[in-house]
Give the backbone structure.
Amino acid sequence: MKNDSPHPGKRVVVTGATGNVGTSVVRALAADPDISSVLGLARRRPALEISKVAWDTVDLSRPSSEERLTGLLDGAYAVVHLAWRFQPTHDPLVTWQSNVLGSQRVFDAAARAGVPALVHASSVGAYSPGPKDEPGVDEQWPTHGWPDAAYCREKAYLERILDTFELRHPQIRVVRMRPGFLFKETAASEQRRIFAGRHAPGPLLRPDLLPFVPDLEGLRFQVLHTDDAADAYRLAVLRDVRGPFNLAADPVIDARGLADLLDARVVRIPRALVRTVLAGAWRAHAVPASPHLFDAVLRLPVLDSGRARDTLGWQPARTAEDALGAFLRGVRTGAGENTAPLAGRKIG
């Protein structure tokens, strides 16, 4: 049922508030004088003290969370939906429960609570395979993902759910953020655990220990500092905009760009060889990143972020190299934050 009571200032609710993107988004929102308060939601309460930010817990994978969500969203000015589970990659039913069904619960709760704006974290991974050349594809490029990769399949499926949601609830302003890869120093330990494994030594990313970078067919992607993405989310909450926005920083990263950052050589290696090794390691549970995600990354299109610049008035403050440099520093030092997802730990 729609809540007709006046909003107590601009209170924003953020799901997935303790992860890489969430911690940056709640800080960006709390620092804006037009936002009166922020409620950060996560499965586990963090040990973070941020002015104007309160915390609560909810597990979106549970059907019982929907009623609780409706109460938490009551009277909110906007909800920013970031919650996402990357693992276990060997059990896609678990991630489907959290990512797809959990997102549906957030959307339905927002409609019942009468929240005026819903800002959803989609991804470059929602896009169908596309060109790797600049200036890149705009927001009209098909969003069917790479169906063999659970992450892309789930992101693309939610795009279809939001298509229907917008038709049923035209009074709700829906924004879909489609960023490239997001990095910051304090999220590096989490990302190492997600993609390389809990025991992968961070110091291995020292230039003297990485003599070469593999030059793979299709290895051309875009990154963005998480804090710059958070600023785009803040603008989407406060401005009267709708629809999707691509988010990426220049330049596009390729093997040569990675080699320059790591002071390493570039060596051409067959893509099939790398995939075979990765597939074997994944089947042996030696690494959490699946070969299906590897296939998807090599097929992602390059994005044109012109709409975000022109409509949101958004511009990244950092380059793609800055974002990758922050990630590499964080991996080497075991950087983190006082939240369960971002707990820092130096390995090796």
